[in-house]
Amino acid sequence: CPFQMSLEVERKFICDADTLKTLEELGAVCVGQQQFQDQYFDNPQFDLTLRDMWLRKRKGCWELKCPAEETNGEQSRAAAMCTRYKEITTLHEIQLRVAEVIKDVCEDRDAEKASSHQDDSWLSRRNLACFAEFTTARQSFKLEEGVQIDLDQADFGYHVGELEVVVPEGGDVQATLEKIERTAQKLGLTGDRRVEGKMSVFLKRYHPEHYAKLLNVHIL
Ligand code: V4E
């Protein structure tokens, strides 16, 4: 498949009993419902996540989220409420990025040749194992063009909303932040602190030591 990389700008929000009602009143259109399982991978030293790199398998496909470099003019409050990550979905590119961080740990030099999204043998070469696994029920809505609103219910008991915009290469990040801010205002989101994602809550609960380390280095 072709090399695919997109920039995802996201703002999470607290999702409560009134959220669905608000969306309905605003005329948001439900664009889908789905359930998916995420498996997140790292080595025993957590070399990826300690660099804010998130390798996961979702619906049979590999995805790697890496932090995006900040560009000028993004010090606004709107920017502070959002996260920006590059999402890479081409397996070969994912393997290259992972290899930059985790050097060979086993001798099987053929492990990455012609691997597919279904063939997981490349993981052992990098000593990668699943450290988090959970299922999400997601309802998606559209209100403003290009902004997806996801309401996620994770199976370990955490409910969170997300405003997400995918920015094409060379796209206007500042305009995207403003668009997300407008949507947030329409939804009446007044919080001025970032809301925790599913992974943050999962790690706090099931890997408290690693969670504490990520907090210390300001990754969570
Ligand atoms: C923890 C984390 C990442 C893993 C994916 O997290 P999240 O965006 O919560 O997943 P999800 O299911 O919403 O993915 P989507 O379907 O939108 O692709 S990627 C980056 N982080 C770190 C992080 C952070 N430091 N702060 C916040 C608010 N979110 C994520």
In short:
With 220 residues, this protein is of the alpha+beta class. It has 7 helices and 8 strands; from the N terminus they run E-H-E-E-E-H-E-H-H-E-E-E-H-H-H.
List keywords for this structure.
220 residues; alpha+beta; Hypothetical Protein Pfu-838710-001; 8-stranded antiparallel barrel; 27% helix; binds Thiamine Triphosphate
Query: Per CATH, what is the topology?
Result: Hypothetical Protein Pfu-838710-001
Rg of Cα set: 18 Å
Strand content: 25-35%
The CATH class is identified as: Mainly Beta
- The helix count comes to 7
Bound molecules: Thiamine Triphosphate
Mean pLDDT across the residues is 90
Give the class from helix and strand content and strand pairing: alpha+beta
Helical coverage, percent range = 25-40%
Q: Please report the distance between the alpha carbons of the first and last residues.
A: 32 Å
Question: How does CATH name the architecture?
Answer: Beta Barrel
Following the backbone from N to C, one meets helices and strands in this order, namely: EHEEEHEHHEEEHHH
User: What is the domain tally?
Assistant: 1
The strands making up the biggest β-sheet line up spatially as: 1-5-4-3-2-6-7-8
Name of the CATH homologous superfamily: Hypothetical Protein Pfu-838710-001
Shape: globular
Uncertain stretches of 5 or more adjacent residues: none
Q: How many β-strand runs?
A: 8
Largest sheet: 8 strands, antiparallel, barrel
